[in-house]
Inverse folding.
């Protein structure tokens, strides 16, 4: 797999390209402090100097508009007030001596938690919508919080013996009360691939459950015993019936819905190769010219008949990079 920082011409006139920046949910500034998670003294210090954010049952966090840039959002946190971290608190990381923590809150608790922010200035937004609107620190904190808290909701019982498990290591492990097994947050690897023909066209497809006119590039989960590159070839063939080559890595992004890591690739297909959408999985698939993608991007991400992925998705960054090349 190759990596370069700029677009460049390749043999035959094909244009090489790379992501122009970090995907929205790959940005982070805090130190995860893995080495302190089992040290009660160091954890106490990070708690006493801590800031806390809350995530509601819908995976939303409290945000407010940036005064200097109203289109941007700022993650709302607050100083910790309890003497000890609640059992469900998870350590997200630290900036110097300041620890950042997250807790899940119920609907009623969310209302109380937001009381310090004027009602007209607060919003509870999910990561898909707000990830690209946050600064690097906020994006990294919320991505980690959503992923960790989602894991805890789904891992209350031991996968080995079925006994209840309890959180430990500042929320980064769960300990089985029956067999003593330790479990760690799970990440499911997935590939997402921009398939193009080297002649200015890209494959865009839509799933049956998506809103009307919503299209994206192709994606799928990596199977046991499969390499990332082989997964790209298999998924493209299964979803649209096209054989691809020149599989090349672009970048990655956590996608905690609930626990994926999206690894972005580009691959080359024969020009005008016929598309055969997988029954029940892909409702429509089309070769879309670069100019139409550029028009949709200039319009903010969509035009009649073509709505592109949201700005928080690595798919959007991949399409932007491809559209700007050539």
């Amino acid at each position: 797999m190759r990596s370069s920082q700029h677009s460049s011409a390749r043999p035959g006139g094909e244009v090489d390209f790379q992501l122009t920046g970090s995907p929205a949910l790959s940005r982070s500034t805090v130190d995860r402090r893995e080495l302190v998670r089992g040290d009660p003294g160091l954890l106490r210090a990070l708690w006493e100097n801590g800031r806390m954010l809350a995530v509601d049952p819908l995976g939303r966090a409290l945000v407010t508009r940036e005064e200097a840039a109203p289109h941007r959002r700022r993650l709302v946190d607050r100083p910790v007030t309890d003497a000890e971290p609640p059992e469900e608190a998870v350590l997200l990381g630290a900036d110097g001596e300041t620890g950042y923590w997250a807790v899940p809150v119920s609907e009623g608790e969310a209302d109380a938690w937001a009381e310090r922010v004027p009602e007209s200035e607060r919003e509870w937004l999910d990561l898909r919508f707000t990830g690209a609107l946050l600064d690097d620190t906020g994006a990294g904190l919320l991505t980690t919080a959503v992923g960790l808290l989602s894991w805890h909701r789904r891992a209350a019982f031991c996968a080995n013996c079925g006994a209840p498990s309890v959180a430990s290591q500042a929320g980064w492990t769960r300990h089985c009360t029956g067999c003593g097994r330790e479990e760690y947050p799970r990440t499911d690897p997935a590939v997402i691939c921009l398939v193009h023909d080297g002649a200015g066209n890209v494959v865009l497809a839509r799933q049956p459950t998506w809103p009307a006119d919503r299209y994206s590039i192709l994606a799928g989960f990596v199977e046991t015993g499969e390499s990332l590159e082989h997964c790209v070839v298999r998924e493209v063939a299964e979803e649209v019936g096209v054989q691809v080559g020149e599989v090349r890595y672009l970048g990655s992004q956590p996608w905690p819905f609930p626990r994926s890591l999206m690894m972005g690739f580009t691959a080359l297909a024969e020009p005008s190769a016929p598309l055969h959408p997988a029954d029940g999985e892909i409702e429509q698939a089309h070769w879309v010219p670069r100019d139409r993608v550029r028009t949709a991007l200039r319009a903010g991400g969509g035009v009649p008949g073509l709505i592109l992925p949201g700005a928080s998705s690595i798919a959007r960054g991949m399409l932007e990079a491809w559209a700007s090349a050539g």
